Amino acid sequence: MSTSSSRRRIRARERRLRQAALAAQAAPPDTPLTWGAGWGSRALALTWLVQQVLIGPFSYDRDVTQFTAVDWFFRIWALAVSGWILGRLAAWKVTADRDGLWIPRLWGIQRIPWDRTGEAICRKDGSVTVHNRTLGPFFPPTLARRLRRPATAEAVADHLTIMARHPHLRPTTAASRSARGLAYAAWTPLPLVVTTAAHLIRSWMA
Predict the structure, then answer these.
(1) Residue 162 to residue 130: CA distance in whole angstroms
(2) How many CB atoms lie within 10 A of CB 185?
């Protein structure tokens, strides 16, 4: 048996033991459970927004009045993608209620019923995968343990998994519309406003 295979078996066994202990101690919550972006995710979102300005208006050699239709098409497309990434970093969210999981997408909120949720997997980079959807980022578990911080990614993955496997441990109420969060498209105007302001500043400095 290879070393990598042995490590995977050990990690799988540790995960099963962790989840069994959590299931034995857990109780069904009276209200929906929500996990979302923390200060680390918001710092990454701010970094993304800043680099959009640095590689956007301040990297052009000409004024926006000289843009062609192709220039505008790719610029607007880049802003739409930027808004999705910004929302994905700053406003990611997962809400667990009696009916399943609610996860924001670009144009809406996706509901994943409990019978389709399956096992939530904590990845090495700190993200959590459930039903082919990626949640996070969280602090990478290995780094968190070295810094003696809680491995939140593992805890979230474990909690989602035991609720999927044990119906009696799921929340007993449905999540409200506000508790489910917003679609990532709601964040699209922010990079547009910031980039427009940067263009105006650049024109003023020219």
Answers:
(1) 13
(2) 16
Residues 6+ apart with CB under 8 A from 48: 82, 85, 86, 89
Rg (CA), the chain: 21
Rounded CA-CA distance 97/119 in Å is: 17
Cis ω before 137 (30° cut-off from 0): yes
Per-residue pLDDT tens for 26-43?
889 999 999 988 888 888
> What are the CB-based long-range contacts (under 8 Å, 24+) for 102-109?
102/175, 102/179, 102/180, 102/181, 103/133, 103/135, 104/180, 104/181, 104/182, 104/183, 104/184, 105/183, 105/184, 106/183, 106/184, 106/185, 107/183, 107/185, 108/183, 109/180, 109/181, 109/183
d(CA 38, CA 187): 17
Condensed to tens digits (0 to 9), the pLDDT of residues 91-105 reads 889 999 999 999 998
Compute the half-sphere exposure of residue 12: CA atoms within 13 Å on the CB side of its CA.
Answer: 7
Helix (H) or strand (E) holding 36: strand 33-36
Q: How far apart are CA 82 and CA 78, in angstroms?
A: 6
Residues 14 and 36: their CA atoms lie apart, in Å, by: 25
Cα separation, 131 vs 66, in Å, equals 46
Q: Note whether 104 and 92 are within 8 A (CB).
A: yes
